[in-house]
Each structure stands twice: as C-alpha cells, then as structure tokens.
C-alpha cells in the first residue's frame, strides 16, 4: 500500500487570514476567542484540502498561531524564568509575550519582511525582550529560539494540542500529529548560562513519552517527530543520544515517523535507519542519491516516507522523473512506501495556479502547496493503478514541463554568450587595494572618520501613498517621478545640512531592495499573492526567478545622476548584490544556483559601469544575505563561498581604480566567514555591529581585515536617538582593533523604517561623534 501525507502545511491562510486576525488581535480590535475561531476555521479548511487531495492523514500540530517552535516551549512548560509567568496568564497571553516581548515597539530591520538572526523582536531596555528569532535551518522562516539554562524544568501542557487532535477527529479525519523531536528541540535552543542543552534531555524525555501516550489515547494514528538536525554535522554526543532517546519514546506505543529533511543524512544514515521507530522520512529532493541506500538499509517492516515533491520551491514537479526514481524503491519496500513533499509546505505559497499577476504560461510551470498535494495524488495513483489511470494528468504535467524547457524566456543564447565572453579575470579589480586607496583618497579628499549612511532614508506614508497611486494608475509616470525627485532632493539637502561626507539618494523610489531590481531585470516574475510566512504575522513574497537574467536597460542611473547633480559631495550609487537577489528569490531548479548567480552578477556589473560612466564615483553593492546562503553541512561551504564571492566580484570589478566600491552586511555573525568577506575585496564594508557593542569587530581586527570598514555605530531598529558620547565610545573601541585611517562612521543599516525627526537627530549626533574623533587626531 502506498500512502500520501505531508510534513506540514502553510497556516497563514490563502488570503493571509491569520496574519490579519493576529494583527487585529494585537491592536485590541478582536479578542482571543475571535482569533481562535479564525485559526480553527483555517485548520478545518486546510484539513479539507488535504483530504480532498486524497492524503491518508491530515497534519495536526503544524498549525501555529505564531511559530511552531515557541509552541513547543509552551507545550513543555519551559518558558524562561525571566518572563515571570505566574500561571494566571492565558495560553495566548503567554505565547504573545514570548513572541513579542512586553514593551512593544514596531521594529523591523528593513521593512521587507525578512528578519534575521538576533533581530530584536519588539522589546526595549525596560521591558522584557521577546525570545530571540533566528532562521529555521537554511530557509527564510524564522523561529523563536528556546532559552535554556541550568535551572530549566519541563512540565507537560498538552491541552491545546489535544484539542486540535479532537477537532480533526470530530471532522472525521485520520490524524498524524507533527512535533519537533526532542533532540532537534534542544539543539535549536540556546543555553543562556553556558548550560549543556543535551544535559536537559533526560529531564525532557519523560514528558515527550507522556505526550505520545496522551496523543495515542486521543486517537492520533501516527506521530511525526521532526529531527532535521540529523542532516547537520553533529557532535558525537548528540548523535549518540538519539538511540537512547528513541528507545524510550518507542515505549509510548504510538507509531512514530522520524522525519529528516533539508540535507543528506550521510554519516547519520545508518543510525536513522536503525532507530526504533515505525517509519523514516527522508528528503528525496535535497538528497536523491541516498534514496537507494535508505531503501536497502531500512528494515522491511518499517515505513519509508520519501520526500519526492520539492517542499522548498515552487516549480511544478517532473512526475515522470519522480516515477522513475520511485520504481526501484517500491521494489525494495513491498508495501511500506509513503510519498510526501520533501519538507513542510510552510515554505511555499498556498497556490500559484490562478495568481492574477502571473501570465498564463508561467502559471503552468509552478506549483504552490495545493498544487503539490495534487501532485502527490497523481503519483500515488500512477504507482497504485498504473500510469494509464492518470494519463491525462501526466500529459498535462509533461506539456507544462516541455514548454518551460523549450521557452525562449528561459534560455537565452545572448546571456550564455555574454557569460562565456567574460574574461577569466573579470572578477579582479585592475589594481590591488593599496593602490586603489591612494587614487580614491586623492579623488575624494575625505576627512578621517568619513561619515555616510547605508542607503535608505525614511519611507514616509507620503512616499508609500504616491507609489500605491502610481501602481494603481492614479498617478501618471511624470508625476510619480517628480514626487520621488522631490524626496531625493529633500534627502540630499538634509545630508548636506548635517555635514555628512558621502551622501546617498535615499531609495525613496524603491519598494524593496530585491523586488526593485527584479522588476527591471528579465527572468524575474512577481506573483500577486504568493506570500510565504517569514515570522509571526510577517510574510514575504519572493520574486520568481524563472529564466536567464538580463538587464534590458539601466535601473538606477537616472536617480543616482539626478541626486549627484544636486550636490558637490560624492553621491553613493546603491545596488543590491547578486547573492542577496538570489537568496531572497525562488530560484530556478533547472541549472545550478551558481550559474544563476553569475547571470545576476553580470547584470549588476553592467549597472555599476553605467553608474561610473555617469559620474558616480562611489557604488555600494549590498550583500546582507551572503551569510545566509551557507550550506548546512561544512563540506559544501567553501564551494559556496567561492562562487558567491566570485559573483560579487564580477559585479564589482568592472570599474577603474578611482571608483570606490562599498558593500554592506547585516543581521548575522560574520566572523566565521571573514576570509571570504575579505576576498570580496570591496574598498569599504559597512556592517552591523552596534548591538554586539563592537564585539563583532574584534574578529575583523584579529583577522587583520585589510580594507576600510564602517562598523555601525547605532542600532536603526529603534527610534531612540543615540547620544554622541555612546557613539564616540563605540568608535574608540573600534579604533582599538582597526587602524583609525581605515574606519568609517555610519549607522548599522538603512533608515527606511525610521521617521525623519529621529533620523536627523541621530545623524547629527553621529556627525558630531566623528568630528570629535577627528579633532583628537
Ligand atoms: N541599502 C539598503 C538600505 O539602506 C540596505 C538594506 C539592508 O541591508 N537590509 O535600506
Ligand atoms: Zn543592513
């Protein structure tokens, strides 16, 4: 018997119903009951969709109001003591306190919906900071990080989960419950006082056992335990602990499906096959090469669940290829085969089949969560009743795939030719840094501790309203242009008045740092409703990178040249780098990411050269997402950093010595990839450092980072105006590790989420700090 199931479903709602209900609740417009009713309605709808597609179980436990990991913190009663819960709070009050902190303040790094490791999440110095957020493995989903310490105790609070099992059962659905497994749960947490997270396992396991028994009694047919950490390089004591843990869990008597995903099992493959569980799920998309060995090694009485449909991307599945891959597996697994998406469908939009913004042809190439359910149905039927039984479905899929492969929108000989024509040293600047530095110093004549900003200035309601009106067609092109020029002129005048040294135009005309470029490049499409949850109620709508990338016309030159015409000071051109554009898009699966990245790099390179020839002497190429692209396993990291670095340098290296290239990074620890950052050979890097109190910079000092650096001297996430003396203190700290002649002075990141008054006040203090340090020299 072949069965189908999913590891999890998106919960935000096809029309983002959960997002809007959450935000209404937080504004006090609806109560807990109303919010819970919206959630229950969504669950019922999602389960019905799963059953309509013939899944053998519905997925229960994956529906989190905010985040599935914080749900486990509440489930196992291990909220950190610092929140001071008394037991008088309702479960929802506890949830939102953990998720959002106590003193709430709208905070978002870049306003684009991406949050990044260490992003403060609604907190201030006096309130209770929320749990930290960080990225869920290599996805753009952010989970709330459990906080453990030596005093952590667990207690089981299963009621909400049991209620959901009952809810699904009352609707007549067979239930598989989804949980994060105990080892992954501890691994994903953070030990506050250096406590040993693994040391908590023995205290935690009895509660998992207890929970499993309760779920069984409640009628759950299976429990899926997600242990994606089996795809990581694990310390030996962690992998050893699996056996002990799962022997205990096995005793609870409910069939367990151990779920792994995102990465090959490699050295953990035999361990995963041997654990005392009833079934094993493997990621057949990220690790197709392991399917055969898993099929051979997994004892025959166990269920093998093959993640055959890509849960991370939006392309329609090549069903013929899947069937070919599955046939040898079926032969080895008489009967016990389950088919599933590779991972939870949380990472893809609900549907793209009718998206109003996508053209008819493109839509046929794509599959959202609902379409993926259907693909599972077709695969199951083809394997059970023969391909004839789904001949029409298979033919439709084949035709769509053929049209994608043959499309001149996808494969462009001119792009391939341009890449091939690129000289092998196109990723090298003509001269070494020291030489360029001298030329640039002579050209720009900047003072010591030069001041600048990261690019964006406040995206005011007026700017947003103008753009919305222009998009609706209510504002003519010329009028919109004029409105943006007025904003740019304002930004330039403010910066001149403040006495900043290197100016920016302020990015008023940009909605989002990736979308703005994607919309002007060939090879990208944008859905109207392809939302994916980023964290809490935050969603992103990643561009669909479907074809060879080319730049039909300059993208930023007119704005930059206009801004430069308003001032005698250097105006920094502002671009998003190829790795960040790649990283924040749904990327094509029919060629290596490295090649797609190189195509984007070529387009950015052309833009950099056009800026240069139009009088822009300084160009910043932002790469905040460079760190995020690192493969989960150490083994793949060097190769990634090689091609990613080369892509950046291709973009940056087409200019003369006198053109100064900046890059900017934020949201992450960079110390472990410093050699790769240095290899980018940007003349100046600005990085987020203020929240680590310049600690991050120590790594740059120790590594003897060779080029110029602007360590962020204040946090842009808060409207608080930083004092000059605080910034002076940070700069002195910086000057202790990096020679002062290589230091720049700038905020941590762009200012688009801020308002003008605090922005001006903060920059005024920042310029004062730079002047103080200059005077000391
Ligand atoms: N130039 C961009 C800005 O200032 C950089 C944003 C980012 O790093 N996330 O908004
Ligand atoms: Zn930034």
TrEMBL record:
Enzyme class, spelled out: transferase
Q: What is the lineage of its organism?
A: Bacteria, Pseudomonadati, Pseudomonadota, Betaproteobacteria, Burkholderiales
Describe cofactor binding as the record notes it. Answer: Binds 1 zinc ion per subunit.
The record's Gene3D superfamilies line, in alphabetical order, gives: 3.20.20.210
Q: What does this protein do?
A: Catalyzes the transfer of a methyl group from 5-methyltetrahydrofolate to homocysteine resulting in methionine formation.
- Catalytic center residues: 717 (proton donor)
Q: Which residues bind 5-methyltetrahydropteroyltri-L-glutamate?
A: 16-19, 135, 538-539, 584, 628
Cofactor(s) required for function per UniProt:
Zn(2+)
Provide the gene name from the record. Answer: metE
Query: Which region is the signal sequence?
Result: none
Which residues are recorded as binding Zn(2+)?
664, 666, 688, 749
Which keywords describe this protein according to UniProt?
Amino-acid biosynthesis, Metal-binding, Methionine biosynthesis, Methyltransferase, Repeat, Transferase, Zinc
Where is L-methionine annotated to bind?
A: 454-456, 507, 622
Which positions does UniProt annotate for L-homocysteine binding? 454-456, 507, 622
One Pfam family recorded for the sequence? Meth_synt_1
According to the entry, every stretch annotated as the Cobalamin-independent methionine synthase MetE N-terminal domain falls at 3-330
The pathway noted for it is: Amino-acid biosynthesis; L-methionine biosynthesis via de novo pathway; L-methionine from L-homocysteine (MetE route): step 1/1
- Designated name of the protein: 5-methyltetrahydropteroyltriglutamate--homocysteine methyltransferase
Catalytic activity reads: 5-methyltetrahydropteroyltri-L-glutamate + L-homocysteine = tetrahydropteroyltri-L-glutamate + L-methionine
Output one GO MF annotation: 5-methyltetrahydropteroyltriglutamate-homocysteine S-methyltransferase activity
Which intervals hold domain Cobalamin-independent methionine synthase MetE C-terminal/archaeal? 450-771
Question: What are the EC numbers?
Answer: 2.1.1.14
Q: Which GO terms describe its biological process?
A: methylation
Q: Which PANTHER family match?
A: 5-METHYLTETRAHYDROPTEROYLTRIGLUTAMATE--HOMOCYSTEINE METHYLTRANSFERASE
Recorded hits in InterPro entries, A to Z, give: Cbl-indep_Met_Synth_N, Cobalamin-indep_Met_synthase, Met_Synth_C/arc, UROD/MetE-like_sf
Please report which protein family the annotation says this sequence is part of: Belongs to the vitamin-B12 independent methionine synthase family.
